[in-house]
Protein 1
Amino acid sequence: MSAPQSAEQSAAQSSVLRPGDERERLRARCRTAVERAIDAGADEAEACASANSGTSVQLEKGDLQLARVKESESLGLRVFVGGRIGFASTNQASSDTSLAQLARDAVTLAKLSPVDPSAGLLSGSRIDPRPFLDQPRAWDIGPERVVDWAADLLGRIRAFDRRISVDQGAVNFGRGSSAVFSSIGADAAESDAGLSASLFGMAIDGDEVGGFDSRGDYARNAEGFEARLERLAREFGTTVLANLGTGRAQTYKGAVLLAPAAVLDLLVEPLVGALSALAVQRGRSAMAGKLGEAIAASAFDLVDDPTDPELAGATGADREGAPAVRTPLVEAGVLATYLYNARAARIEGRASGTGHAVGGPRGVPGIGPHALVLGPAKPSDEGQLDFGRDELAPRLGRGLLVGRFSGTVDPTSGDFSGVAKSARWIEAGAVTGSVGETLIAGNAYEALRAIAALSSRTALLGGRCRMPWALVDGVSVTAG
Amino acid sequence: METHPDPIDLLSSALVGREQGFVELRLHRKRQRAVAVEKGRVETAQSTEHTGVGVRVLEEGTFGFASTDRLDVASIRRAIDQARAAARASARLRTRAIDGMAPADLARGRFEVPGFAETEARSLDEVLDLVLRTEARARAGANQVDSASAAYSELLEEKAIVTTDGARAWLRHVRPELRVGAVARSGGELQRGSRSVGVTGGWECLFRATSADGLADDAARIAVDRLRAGYPEGGRKRVLLSPALVGLLTHEAIGHTVEADFVMSGSCAAGKLGQRVASELVTLCDSGASEYADGAGGTLPVDDEGVITGRTPIIERGVLTGYLHNRESAAHFGVAPTGNARAWEYQNEPLIRMRNTYIEPGNSSFEELLAGIEDGYLLDGPANGQADANGEFMFGTQEAYRVKDGVKGPLMRGVNLSGRAFDVLDSVDGVGREFRWDLGSGHCGKGQPAKVDAGGPWLRCQVLLGGRG
C-alpha cells in the first residue's frame, strides 16, 4: 500500500486527460515498472497498466437505483528470473517507490517458483492504435447525460407494457486507456470509450411470474444511442412478455432451433475454449490433432475479428502487445488454427503467437478471442428480432426453439445438459407458445457437425459478438 | 492497513464537515495470493492488491456512489462530493424516493474471523509445494489420467466501515480455496473430474474434512470412472441429493428468490410470507455465522453496511418466514436488516447477497434415505446453477448413480436437474442427520461476485433430470 498523498496530488490526478496524454502517462508507468523489475533481478519483464473512468446508472425494481462515478487504475508486472515466473499487481502503484516494491515482490515470487524452460516473453515492437482507438468519439460524456439515457430506457419499457418488471439493469459510460511495455520490445497503447445498456427482468401478469430474460447493447458512438435503447427495450419487452403463459413441451430426440444467444453458449464458447493452444498442449482439448480436419458442418465459418469497430472487443494489440488481427478459426467447417499467447507459442517453439493473449493488469495473460463472428457478417435488419426464427422454423417443422441455454457444458468432453430458457414450441413451422421446465442434453462437438442450417443474418449480442440462428440435430429434449 | 494507524480515524476525519444526510464510507483492502499448476508447470504465482474507499450517500431519495483508490482525507472528501452530485443528478428522474435506511444493530469495534494471521504468515514455498504435490498426485491417480491441474488462492480482506448514523467497525477475514481437476483419456474420448474446497479460516479449517491428497484422488477417480459411465435417463425422478447439492438447491432455488430486492421486483416468493411453501421437514436459513460446523465460506460477522450479521430463518418447518435484507429493503418492509449487504471490492456498492445458506439437519440416516428410493438416482458433485424469477431453477451435477430398490448402482455421467423451487421443497420426504458445508469454493454472480457457502444434510426429493434420450 502506498503512502498517503497530498490533496494537490489527488486533485491533479482527478482531471480527465486527453486519450493521447493518458496513454503516454501509462506507457511511462509501464516503462518505469519494467526498469525497476530488471533492477530487482529480472531477466525479462512486462508491465500492463490501465486507467478507467465513467458513470454507471443502475436500474433496480423498475426505478433509477444508484448513480455511480468511477475511477480506477491498475498495474500488473510479470517477470521471469532464470526460467521462473512471478507476477504482482496493485492499484496502489502511483509512486516510483511503490513501483520498486511491486518489482521486488514479483521477483521474489519468481525466485520461489520452479524452473520452466519454456517460461518467458516473445519479442515485440511498437504498435500504434487503430484510428477509432486513438481518439475515441465518445470520450467526454457527463453523468447527467447517462442519467437521462437511463430514465429514457426505463420510460420506453414502461410505455411498452406495464407488466414488465426490470429487476436489474444499467446504462454505463466508460472510457479508459491501456498500455503494455516489455523489456524485449513490446510497446502498445490504446484508448477506448463506449456506452452500454443492459436489462434483466421478467413480465408479471396477476399471479403469474414469467421467466426472466436479459439483453444488452454496446456502442462506441453516442449518436443514435436513443434508437438503440428503443430497440433494446422492444426486444427485451417482446421476449419477457412471450415468456408468460408457459405450456408443456414434448420429450423427443432430434432437431432444435437455437437462437443466437444459445448458439454462443452451446456451440461457440465450448469450441473456442478447446481451441486454446494451452488446452491442446495440456491434453484437455477435444480439438487436439484436428487442424485441417472438418469439425463442423460446412456452413460453419468462425472468425475472430478485432478490426470490427462495432464489437466491444475490437483492439489493435493483445494483452501482451502482439498485433491483434482478423483470424479465421474455422473455415467451411474445417479447423484453421489454435489460439496462442506467448506462453503457448514458446512451448511449441514458435517465434510468435496469434495475438490472442487476453486479460488485464490484474492477472497473467490468458488465451481467448477478441470479437467472434459466426457465419455471414451481414447484420440483421433493424427491428427484426426473430429474423432467424422465421427463416429456419419452417425447416424444423415441429420441435423446440431454445432462446437461451441455462446449464452446463463440459468443455473437455463437450457434453451439455441444462434448461431451455425463453423456449417456444413450434408446430408446422410456426410458434404455438412458450414452454417451461424443458431440459436439453447432448454433446457440443457432435452438435457442430449436426448443424443442419445457419440463418443468413447474424445478431449483434450485447456488442460482444455476431451470432446467427442455428438448426441443430441430435439433441435430447426432456419435458417436465 | 499498514500505512495508516487507524483506518476508522481516517474515514471519520474525512466525514467532518460532510455529515449531512446519510453517508457510508468503506475502506476495503483486498489482497490475493494465487498459484496455479497444470501438468507439472507453474502457470502463475501471483500476488495482487486492490485497496480503496467506497462512498455511498443517500441524497434526495436516491443513492449515489463514488470511489477512490487514494487513501487521504482530501480524496475521500472528493469522492463524497462526487457521490452526492451523482445522486442529485439521478434524483430528478427517480419515480419513487427511497424510504430511507432502516435502523440497525450497527457494529462498533473490531471483528475478526480466525485464520487471517496464520494464513498471511504462511510462506509461498509451502503454498507452491501444496499445489505442485496435489497436481502431481491427481496426474498419477490412474494410467488413463492424461492431464491435471491444481489452483490455490486466498483472499485476505480488511475493511473499515463508518457511517453517519453510527457504524464504526473494523473487520478482517481470509478465504482460502483449493481446486483440483483431472482429465482422463480413452481413445478419442476425454472426461474431466474435479473437486474443490473453500472456507473462511486457515488451512486447518480448509483441510479439516478432506485433505489435498483426497481431493486429488477424487478428481482422478471421477475422470476415469466417467469414461465408462452411461447417461442417466431424463424425466421426473426421485433423487437423493448430497449436502453439496442441497447447498446448490438452497442457494439457487430458494436463496435468490428471497433476496428482498428480487422480491420487490416480483420474484415468485413475493407475497408468500406466512404461506406453506415446502414440506414441514424443511427449515432453511441463511447465516453470517458458520452454523453446525466451522469455516463456512460466506462467514461474515459484519456486513458492508456495518450491520452485525446473524442467523436469518427463511423457511421454518415448511412456512416462508423471511426475506434477506439490506437496510433499504428492511425499511421498505418494516423489518430489521438481516446483514446481507455485501460488496465485492471498494469500487462496488453493497447489494443484497447470501452468506451461508443451508437446510437444517433432520433425523434420517443416509441408509434410511437411500432405502426409500425405489427407482431413482443419488446425485453428487456440484457444477454451476441458476435461478429464474418464476422459481424455475437448474443446477449441474458431476456424478449420478442409479438407485434401484434402495441399492446404489454404478456411476453415470453428471446431469443437470431442474424444477420449480417450492414444488421441489414440497416433495421432500426425507432429511438426513449429518450436516456439511460444501460450496465454499468459487463465487456467486449477481453483477458482482460474492464468496458464499451452502450446505445441509442428505435430502430426498423429486426433480426433473435432463438425461439423454
Protein 2
Amino acid sequence: MIAFPSPRHVRDLASGTREHTLASLALRTLRRDLLGRCERLRDRLGKDTTRCFGEFVDVALAAGHPMDWTLHLDFGVFCGVDEPHLWDELCVAAARRWVRSSSCGESWLAVSCAASPDRVVVGLRARSLDDGPAVLRGSQRVRSHLDQPFRYQTGEGPFTELGTDWRPYRPRIPRQGVPR
Amino acid sequence: MLLGTNVTSAANLRDGERFFAAGLVDFHELLIDNFVHLDPNAVARRLADRPVGLHIMVSRFLDRDRDELARLGNRLRRFVRTLRPIYVSDHLGHYEVDGRLLPELVEVDYNDRSLFTAIARWQDMLACTLLLENFPSGSDNGRGQVEFFEELTRQVPVLPLFDLSNAVIAEKNGGAVTEDWLCSSLPLSACHISGYRTSAVDPDLLIDSHDCAIAEDSWRFLSETLSRRGAPDTLVVERDVQGDTENWAADLRQARRLCLTESRP
C-alpha cells in the first residue's frame, strides 16, 4: 500500500531494510526541495535541520497538507520566520516548486507575503522552447495592508503584469518557532 | 532506427539541435509537461520539420480526477495533432497519495489489475497509442513488472517504452530480471537509455539519475537486446544535467555504433 513517507513512520522501520532506505531517500528528496535553495533559512535554523524538518513534515501530514508548493509557506510559519529576507527566499523556493510541478495550462504564479507586502515573486514556466523557466523578484505598489499572511495569483499565457485577483493562502500549520 | 535526445529545457534543446546538425541524432523527445502551456503551433514552427516524440512526466493519470485529467488530455491532444509525434509516452507510477504530492514517483502495485482501466481511460483521452515506461524499481516489489506489462498489453492496446537502464537498475535492486524482458512477448521498439548512480543513503541501491555517462552494464544489456530483438525503432539517450555535452555526444556515438553493428538483421 502506498503511503506518504512520514518521518515518524520511518523512525519505526528497521534500519537497513529496503523499505527504510526508500522512505529515507524520499524524505531526503523532500528536504532538498524544501531547504536546498534556502541558504539563509538553513543558516538561521542551525547545523542540524533534520529534526526541525522531521517535526514539520509530521505536523504537515497530520494537518492534511497537500505537500504542494505551499509547503514552503507553511514551513516558514512553522519555524516562526518573521524576517522579510527569509520570506523572500521561501517565496522564491515556493514559486520554483510550483514551476516544477505544474503540468496544466497555467503559465505563471505570483506570490506575496504580509511580512514584505511590497515584494512579489513570480514563477514563470518556459515562455518558449528557447526561454526556459525563471523566477523573478519584483516590487509592487500596495494600496492597503494585506489582511492575509499570503496571497497569490496564477495566469495563463505570457506574463505581462499582475492582475487584481489575488487569492489568499491561509497556512494550515500553526507557528511553532525555532530558537535563533 | 532513429536516435534522439531528451529536451527538458531551452538548454538541452540547444544541445539537441547541435547534435542534430552534426548528424548525431535524428529526433528530439520533448518532455511535454514543461511546454504544454505553450501554443503548439509556435512549438511546431520552432522545431521546423524535425521529428519529435512526446514524453509525459507528471500527468498523474493514476491520481487525478477525471475532469482535471480531461483538461490536460485536451491540451496534449492539440500537441499531438499539431506536432504529429513519432510516439506519445508516459510514466506508470503514483505521484500523489490521499491528495498529497509525493516527494518522488512511486512504483505501482503490479498485482492491482484495476490500473488497466485507468490506463485505458488515459489513452482514450489522448486519442493516440500510449507508450508506458518501465519503472526503475527500488525493491523486490517490482518483481511482477514484466508479467504486468504482458497482461496489460494483451488487454489494453498500449505499448511499453522500454528503458534499458531502468531494467538494469530494477534487476540490481531486486525487481524484475532483465532476461524476462527479452524473453517476453513485449515489443521493445521504443527505447530509452541513460546513466544511473548509487544512492547517497545506501550504496546497494541504484537510482535513475540521468546525470552521468551510461554504465557498462547498460551498454551490455543494449548489445544483448540488439542481438536478440534487433534494432528498436527509436532510442533516446537521456541526460538531465547541463554542461556535459561532450560526454553526452560520446554516449550517442556509442549507441549508434552498437545499433549498427550489434543488431540482429
Protein 3
Amino acid sequence: MRLPLLALLAKEPAHGYELKSLLEQTFGQAYPSPNIGQVYVTLQRLERDGLVRSQDVVQAARPNKRVYELTPTGRDALAAWVEEPSDGPRIRDDFFMKLALSPLTGATDQMALINRQRRHYLGLMRGLSRLAAGADRGNPISKLLIEGAMLHLQADLDWLERCQEELV
Amino acid sequence: MIGQARPLAAGQARPLAASAAGTALLRVAGLTKVFRGDGGAVHAVRGVDLSVARGEFVAVTGPSGSGKSTLLHLVGGLESPSSGEIWLGGKRVDGLSQARWAVLRRRQIGFVFQFFNLVSNMTVADNVELPALMSGATRRQARARREELLAELGLTSKAGAAPGRLSGGEQQRVALARALANRPSLLLADEPTGNLDSSNSGDVLRLLTRVHDQGQAILLVTHEARAACMADRVISLFDGMVVDDAVVFPPLPSSTTAASVLRLGGDHGAGRSSLDPC
C-alpha cells in the first residue's frame, strides 16, 4: 500500500482516516477495504524511510490528529514508480506444478485436476459478475479492475483448454 | 383412451427414458452426430447424455470443434442425430419430420444466435410479432406481447426502427424478445454474446439472467466463461463428449474482489495486491 498512499498524498497533506476513505472511494469493492491499522503502520514505515513527514495538528475538544505530507524523496519515489513499466500477472504456477507432476504423484488424474480448477475459476467468475452488477456499477475504476480480473480468468480458462488438448 | 394409461402389451418394455424424461424438461441420451464428407467421417457429437430441468439454466462450454454448437442444433432440430434420443417435455422428438420440428420450435423452443438473424426489411416490432402471428395469435395478442417484451428488454423506443439501424447489443435484445414471444419452455442460445463488445455482452447476460429468474429454462452454448458462469450448471464438452457437469458455486460475496482474483496464485511471495500492508 506504500505507493498508493504516496500517490494520495501527492495532491495535499492528509491524515490516516482521510487516506483510508480516499482509497475506498477510488477503488470501491475492487480491493478489500484497507484496515485503518494497516494504513497507520504503512505511514509510520514511510516516515521511517524518509518518504513522508508528519506533524500533530491541535484540535479543540478532540485528540490531536497527525497530518502526513510527502517529502522530496517521497515525491521522487512516486515519480519513479509511475514511470517504470509494471510486471504482468504470471501464470498460475502452483496449479501448473500439480498438473505437470501428477503422473509422478499418481494422486489424481489430469482431467480431474483440470475440471476442479475450471469449476473454481467459474465460481470466481460468477463472484466477479455479481460484483460488477452490484454496488460497484457506478465506479469506473472498480469496474475496470473487475473487467481486468475477468479477462485474466478467461485467459486462464482458455489455457486450461490447451492443457486438456495437449495432455489428456 | 382419455385419462387412463394405455396398458402395455405383454412382453413390451416401457421405454426407459420415458420415466426419467417425465421430470426433466429436456433429456438427451446417447446422442451422436457423424458428418460424412469428402475427407471422411467427422464424429462431432459422441454419446452425449444431459438433462435440463424445468426453469433450469444450463451452459455448455468447450473449445471450438468440441461439438457444442452441433449439440445445440440437434436439440433444436436444426440437425438430425445419427443415433440417440432427445426427449422434450416428456415426448420423444428425435425422429420428428422437419415440419413437426418447425411447429415444435414455434411453440416450445426459442432460439438466439450469434449473428441475431433478424429479418432486415421488417421493423423491430414486426420481427418480434412474427412468431406469435405464425403460431396463430391474433394481431392484437401479438402486439400486446410485443409491447410487453420490448418494454421488458428496454427497447420500446426502437419498435419502429429497422434492425440494421440498431447496435449489435440492441439487435441481440430484439432477437431475445423474438425468441421469447411464444413463451417457449426452453430457450436455446448459441454464442449470444460472441459478436458483442464487453458492455453489450454484459447487458445481454443480465437479461438472460433476468428471464431465467422469471422461470425460463435456458440451454446456452458459449466459449465465454463470463456467460457460462451465469448458469446454474456448466457442462464441459471435449471432443464431442461430456467431460464435466458441475454446479457453479460462487465464492462467498465478501471473499471475491477483483484484486483477490488478479493475485490468485500469482508470483510467489509477491502474490499480494498493491493495497496490502507492506
